[in-house]
Amino acid sequence: MNTAHLAALTSGATAGIWIGLGIPAFVCAAVAVIVWSYFRLQSHRADAVAMADYRKLAEQAVANQQELRTELAKLTDKVAAVEKLMRDVG
What we know:
Elements: H1 3-89
């Protein structure tokens, strides 16, 4: 064998090693990215559900606050009427 054949065999073997190691490494990296993306998506979905629950809770709080304001206004009117009655009597 001459040096040209030996160089060709060596470069071919090196290329085979790179292909043999490169393809599985690429596949593993792709699987890792897919798994990471999946769990990130699940995290965003959980955040969206929590945000929807928070929005619903905030809407209920606003409705309850409005109801309390209405009741407080009625109570204020009644107290004012009682005070007027006490001033008229006393």
